[in-house]
Amino acid sequence: MNDILLLKQGEIVLKGLNRRIFEEKLIANVRRRMARVGQFRVYAAQSTVYVEPLEEGADMDAAFEAAKQIFGCVAVVRAAACEKTPQAIFETARDYLSQEFSRVRSFKVESKRSDKTYPMTSIQVSQEVGGLLSDAFPDVAVDVHDPELTVHVEIRENAAYVHSVPALGAGGLPVGSCGAAVSLLSGGIDSPVSTWMAAKRGVHIVPVHFFSFPYTSQLAKDKVVELARLLVPWCGRMTLEVVPFTHIQEEIRDKCPEEYFTVIMRRFMTRIAERIALAHDCGAIVTGESLGQVASQTMSALGVTQEPVKLPVLRPLVCMDKREIVEIARNIGTFETSILPYEDCCTVFTPRHPRTKPRLQEVLEAEAPLDTQALVSEALQGIERIPIR
Ligand code: ATP
Ligand code: MG
Question: Are 222 and 230 in contact (CB under 8 A)?
Fold first, then answer.
């Protein structure tokens, strides 16, 4: 068996003394992900993670698709391994890329040599293998400037590898290499994207959902569970924390001026998120807020929303347009679920005329009748934890 995946490390290679830590995280993440597909040997060398099947008939298509969702890799290559002689490289390229050769009119060979003790230069390898391929496929011309097919040859320590176009990797940093954060996950379009973006920067995610039963239905909760499930291939396994939010919302409705409903509710979300974060060793709170998108996302509303807490509030979407957010949601596969029509707790008791520029002093006065501490404790005690696999 000589089919293999090469996962090219991205930003990790720029890390200095910490590089080993990032690389080990990546290897652990790749191992965990590949274990779900089949039996593979996973190891790293020369800024590349190798994924080698250990069984006949391993599902390399599934492994290849899975690899493209692992943060920390800039490119994913499916390659054939062979001996490091020009003849073996030629034969491998001829057989492994025969379909590609039947579809194009021109090609070139591009070689890289990380084994510096190898007796031939990269150019010599390319010329020799190119010559042999040109004889084998007389209808396909050599074109070194603008070929339809580039045959990549990599000569590394243990073997040579032959492949055509590398696929784009997920980029970013290995999940878990930059700590953990609580991510506020609603059933909307935005928060699955902000969660994904935080994970892309190496953050382990603790998703938190505020649930206002019976004002929002079981279907709304199922939808959030499904969104979290769709994020698992990117973010890894998670446990969704579902916070009962009904009592808090009813208290706000009964005791606070209507124009401040939303911003007071959001301050509760932030407080509870911080408490969950501290309990789980998380260093930040992630939200899907985007500047100016709605009344509760103006600059002053964002300021008032984060005022009760000390942890940094990360807002990956803050300067993105809806169009850009939707494009990512489609690409990562959450969009279709996000647009299912179930309501969110934010649409329960929405004020007719929300304050778009709330001032902190006014908000503090507006929420003064509430027993904040008690409401937060009560909500924390009622949390339901749902493992997402
Ligand atoms: P989304 O599409 O993510 O629902 P949105 O544009 O509808 O966002 P809001 O409803 O104001 O905006 O919510 C802003 C952010 O607050 C969300 O992106 C999410 O991070 C958080 N949030 C809102 N509702 C909930 C909820 N029920 N549970 C957890 N987090 C929530
Ligand atoms: Mg929403």
Answer: no
The single-letter code of the amino acid at 157 is E
Distance 139 CA to ligand 1 centre (A): 58
Residues 6+ apart with CB under 8 A from 239: 206, 207, 385, 386, 387, 388
Ligand nearest to the CA of 193: 1
Which pLDDT tens digits describe the chain residue by residue (389 residues)?
478 999 999 888 888 888 999 999 999 999 999 999 999 999 998 889 999 999 888 999 999 999 999 999 999 999 999 999 999 999 999 999 999 999 999 999 999 998 889 999 999 999 999 999 999 999 999 999 999 999 999 998 889 999 988 999 999 999 999 999 999 999 999 999 999 999 999 999 999 999 999 999 999 999 999 999 999 999 999 999 999 999 999 999 999 999 999 999 999 999 999 999 999 999 999 999 999 888 889 999 999 999 999 999 999 999 999 999 999 999 999 999 999 987 777 777 888 888 889 999 999 999 999 999 999 999 999 999 999 98
Return d(Cα 219, Cα 223) in angstroms, integer: 6
Atom of ligand 1 nearest to the CA of 296: 11
H or E segment to which residue 76 belongs? strand 73-82
**C-alpha gyration radius of the chain:** 26
CATH 3.30.70.1510 residue ranges in the chain?
1-83+165-174
Cα of 255 vs centre of ligand 1, distance in Å, is: 23
Angle subtended at Cα 190 by Cα 362 and Cα 227, rounded to the nearest 5 degrees: 125
Q: Which atom of ligand 1 is nearest to the CA of 287?
A: 20
What CATH architecture is 1-83+165-174? 2-Layer Sandwich (3.30)
Å from CA of 186 to ligand 2 middle: 6
- CATH number at 84-158: 3.30.2130.30
Please give all residues whose beta carbon lies within 6 A of any atom in ligand 1, as ranges: 184-186, 188-191, 208-210, 287-289, 293-294, 296, 344-346
Nearest protein Cα to ligand 1, atom 6:
190
Length of the chain as a residue count: 389
In the chain, CATH 3.40.50.620 sits at: 180-388
Select the CATH number that applies to the domain covering 180-388 from these four: 3.40.50.620, 3.40.50.2000, 3.40.109.10, 3.40.50.2300: 3.40.50.620
